[in-house]
């Protein structure tokens, strides 16, 4: 039965002929559209794929992308980055976090800056790497600054599980995990208020690939039902994205509004139940979580349940972690960009004061942010 | 989301709850904490993310998708060929 | 520019270039330096002169070690100007407590590589510093070579040239990441660390019209192409499909979110050759084991001056920019 090779799972979904084939089919189907449609890709991985593979260059002009906020690094508010900075500065403390967090600037600078000034900051590939660091530095406190959407949330809980079961005493957690459906609702609601013209409306969603592997597609049911927006959960390879776009266009031309799965090989309706159980066990929703550029999005962030306050760095260090909100740069229009109401090149500081090496706003900060993607790939797009 | 990659399971260590996966000749270990016991077997294709196995890839669905893509290509090829014949028939330069 | 030096400024990419031009070039201003070639051409175009420091970690990696690297690195820079390496210096800064056996191993490696290049070490310096002042050992080599073909320069590339690479990309960078503590991978991947003198001399002897050569070290082929585009005021258009990458490097790039064109190489070079000599150049390169998969990857145009464009096989295009930041694995 296994004629499937590993290489097929890569090449098969990047096949240039198939990409061209879908471009043709989309162009034909799109001729039947009665008005232009705007598709929001929620997930930063999709933004990156779309930009890297130049997909907008293959689509007809009546299909537009609106780039969503889908990058957990981009949406980290300055206050929280300052938390990481302050925690890193504590004596006998090692701050551990995933890759891109290192470059994100808070109000004091980034973790990279903190490290240059002597703080012990380690970037790791997997939360499990924290265990080794803790073992080798048993006299120090290891604080895991957890970030990510539902994709990475279960991995943090798996680490918490191990820490508690093995009785490891020197690992603590600062939780900054956020969830996707709540921000999708916030974007629809806030845009529907601001909409002046049809041009800005989010008409459909390209559902995130790997968030959905964990949560199942069930979390998007309300969008076609209550908000009249089709959702197609797509893989992030270029063929996946093109196939999903065709599926969305067909929904419009055939008068349907449904939740569909393009990424069938990995996404099911129910998702990974064990991962969901782990999350449920250790986390609860915080009533408010501020998304940089978007403001507070209710019920969109996780925090440790009170019975785990012994390992909750946010509680333990509460008296030195600032609470005040910090404004973004006044010329930064990331909020509008995240809502899809403006494009990166409409920002007055895009590419000048604000660029990947010196990011001033959330969208430039990570390589998956809309501004960063535009800066890198944008000049050749339509 | 990002950086989750398909890999093949080549070894399972039940004691440490870890699988060894192979991605194009590069091998690394991945945690099994997010998978039910006994669910992952050697030879399975799985999705890897930050050191953990996130889910198994449904081979049937994958092959079904690839099959559909091939059919699309064949159909487009067929149409192109038909169009070329029509274009040829309609070519003004063709001798009567 | 930042008030403090950051790790990114040593990346061989944009921040590195900024540091060099705003502090060093500004102070040391002169015509030769500003040419920004791999090695300085001095003494009326007869000699090439270059220096490099080596701080690689781990010291011993599949395919080589810091010693081999220290000799290859400088000799290759000389070779890239069409020179035969002749005389090297070797300066070491050693951390107190370093193993003498390891030091001997490293020096033996250097000796082997010197013989390979036909060069000798004629001067050197040894310093030992207290524990913690350097990470085990840092080596600097400076070299002088005799130019056998004059006029090779990264400032003269034009539309009459085609761009080739000597082998599959990214092996060294991928190997180092794989061997580093903290990212555990196991594969049979090896660094491409090798001396390029023989290949370059063979190309010269075959009378191939070489416009420019550069070895693709930190910042990878991306950095080289961007430097060339800016220095020669051209646009380099790369056929994405033609870029050679081995399966294992591909695998590591997938896992860690890198692009092979941004990874360091230590035995791979990029060539700008007159169009009519493309076949001849490839023939010469293919006769050497470590350039047996040399291939053309790009043409030169004036479409976007100073930029490098990547053309996909399905009709899209994008800019390939100089890498920025530390090379960190991308996550969500």
Describe the protein.
The complex is a heterotrimer of chains A (382), B (96) and C (332). By secondary structure, chain A is of the alpha/beta class. Chain A has 16 helices and eleven strands. Chain A folds into two domains: 36-332, Rossmann fold (3-Layer(aba) Sandwich); 334-380, no CATH class. Chain A has helices at residues 6-11, 16-30, 44-52, 78-89, 111-116, 129-136, 153-165, 180-194, 209-215, 222-227, 238-253, 273-282, 313-316, 334-338, 362-365, 370-377, and strands spanning 37-43, 63-70, 93-98, 121-124, 141-148, 171-177, 204-207, 231-233, 259-261, 283-291, 295-304. In chain A, strands 2-1-7-8-9 form a five-stranded parallel sheet, sandwiched between helices. Chain A is globular, with a radius of gyration of 21 Å. A five-stranded antiparallel sheet of chain B has the order 3-2-1-4-5, with no helix packed on it. Chain B is 32% helix and 33% strand. Chain B folds into two domains: 4-57, SH3 type barrels (Roll), CATH 2.30.30.140; 58-91. Chain B has one helix and five strands. Chain C folds into two domains: 35-147, 60s Ribosomal Protein L30, Chain: A; 161-319, PurM-like C-terminal domain (Phosphoribosyl-aminoimidazole Synthetase, Chain A, domain 2), CATH 3.90.650.10. Chains A and C meet through helix 2, helix 3 and helix 5 of A and strand 14 of C.
């Amino acid at each position: 039965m296994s004629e499937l090779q590993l290489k097929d799972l890569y090449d098969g979904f990047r096949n240039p002929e198939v990409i061209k084939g879908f471009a043709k089919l989309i162009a034909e189907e799109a001729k039947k559209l009665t008005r232009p449609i705007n598709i929001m890709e929620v997930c930063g991985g999709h933004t990156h794929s779309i930009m890297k593979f130049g997909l907008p260059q293959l689509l007809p002009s009546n299909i537009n992308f609106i780039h969503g906020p889908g990058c957990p690094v981009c949406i980290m508010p300055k206050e929280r980055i300052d938390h990481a900075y302050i925690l890193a500065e504590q004596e006998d403390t090692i701050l551990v976090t995933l890759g891109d967090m290192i470059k994100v600037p808070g109000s004091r600078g980034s973790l990279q800056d903190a490290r240059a000034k002597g703080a012990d900051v380690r970037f790791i590939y997997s939360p499990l790497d924290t265990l080794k660091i803790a073992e080798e530095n048993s006299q120090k406190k290891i604080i895991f600054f957890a970030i990510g959407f539902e994709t990475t949330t279960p991995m943090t809980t798996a680490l918490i599980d191990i820490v508690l079961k093995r009785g490891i005493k020197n690992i603590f957690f600062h939780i900054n995990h956020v969830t996707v459906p709540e921000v999708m609702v916030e974007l629809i609601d806030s845009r529907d208020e601001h909409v002046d013209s049809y041009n800005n409306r989010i008409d459909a969603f390209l559902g995130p690939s790997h968030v959905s592997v964990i949560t199942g597609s069930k979390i998007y049911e309300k969008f076609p039902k209550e908000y009249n927006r089709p959702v197609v959960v797509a893989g992030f390879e270029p063929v996946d994205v093109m196939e999903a776009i065709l599926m969305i266009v067909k929904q419009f031309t055939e008068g349907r509004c449904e939740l569909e799965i393009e990424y069938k090989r990995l996404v099911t309706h129910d998702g990974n139940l064990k991962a969901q159980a782990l999350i449920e066990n250790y986390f609860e929703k915080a009533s408010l979580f501020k998304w940089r550029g978007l403001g507070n999005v209710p019920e969109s962030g996780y925090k440790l349940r009170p019975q785990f306050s012994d390992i909750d760095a946010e509680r333990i260090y509460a008296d030195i972690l600032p609470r005040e909100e910090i404004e973004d740069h006044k010329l930064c229009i990331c909020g509008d960009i995240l809502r899809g109401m403006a494009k990166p090149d409409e920002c007055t500081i895009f590419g000048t004061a604000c660029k990947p090496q010196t990011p001033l706003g959330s969208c430039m900060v990570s390589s998956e942010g809309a501004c960063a993607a535009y800066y890198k790939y944008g000049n050749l797009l339509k | 989301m990002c950086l989750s990659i398909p890999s093949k399971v080549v070894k399972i260590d039940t004691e440490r709850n870890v699988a060894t996966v192979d991605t194009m000749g590069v091998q690394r270990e991945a945690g099994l904490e997010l998978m039910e016991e006994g669910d992952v077997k050697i030879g399975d294709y799985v999705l890897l993310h930050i050191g953990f196995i996130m889910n198994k890839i449904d081979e049937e669905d994958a092959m079904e998708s690839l099959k559909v893509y091939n059919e699309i290509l064949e159909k487009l090829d067929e149409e192109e060929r038909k169009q070329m014949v029509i274009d040829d028939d309609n070519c003004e330069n063709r001798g009567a | 520019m930042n008030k403090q030096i950051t790790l990114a400024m040593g990346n061989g990419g944009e921040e590195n270039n900024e540091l060099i031009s705003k502090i060093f070039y500004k102070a040391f201003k002169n015509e030769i330096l500003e040419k920004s070639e791999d090695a300085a051409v001095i003494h009326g175009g007869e000699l090439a002169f270059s220096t490099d420091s080596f701080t690689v970690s781990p010291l011993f990696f599949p395919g080589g070690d810091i010693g081999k690297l220290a000799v290859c690195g400088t000799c290759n820079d000389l070779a890239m100007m069409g020179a035969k390496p002749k005389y090297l210096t070797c300066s070491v800064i050693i951390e107190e407590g370093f193993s003498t056996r390891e030091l001997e191993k490293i020096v033996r490696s250097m000796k082997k590589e010197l013989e390979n290049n036909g060069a000798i070490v004629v001067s050197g310096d040894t310093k030992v510093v207290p524990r913690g002042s350097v990470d085990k050992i840092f080596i600097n080599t400076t070299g002088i070579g005799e130019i056998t073909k004059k006029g090779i320069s990264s400032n003269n590339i034009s539309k009459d040239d085609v761009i080739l690479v000597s082998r599959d990309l990214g092996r060294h960078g991928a190997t180092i990441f794989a061997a580093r503590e903290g990212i555990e991978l196991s594969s049979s991947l090896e660094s491409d660390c090798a001396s390029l003198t023989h290949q370059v001399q063979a190309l010269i002897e075959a009378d191939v019209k070489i416009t420019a050569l550069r070895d693709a070290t930190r910042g990878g082929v991306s950095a080289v192409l961007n430097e060339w585009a800016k220095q020669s005021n051209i646009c380099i258009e790369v056929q994405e499909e033609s870029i050679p990458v081995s399966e294992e490097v591909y695998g590591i790039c997938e896992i860690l979110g890198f692009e092979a064109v941004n990874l360091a190489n230590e035995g791979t070079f990029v060539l700008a050759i007159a169009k009519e000599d493309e076949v001849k150049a490839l023939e010469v390169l293919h006769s050497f084991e470590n350039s047996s998969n040399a291939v053309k990857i790009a043409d030169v145009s004036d479409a976007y001056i100073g930029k490098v464009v990547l053309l996909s096989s399905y009709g899209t295009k994008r800019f390939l920019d100089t890498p920025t930041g530390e090379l960190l694995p991308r996550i969500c």
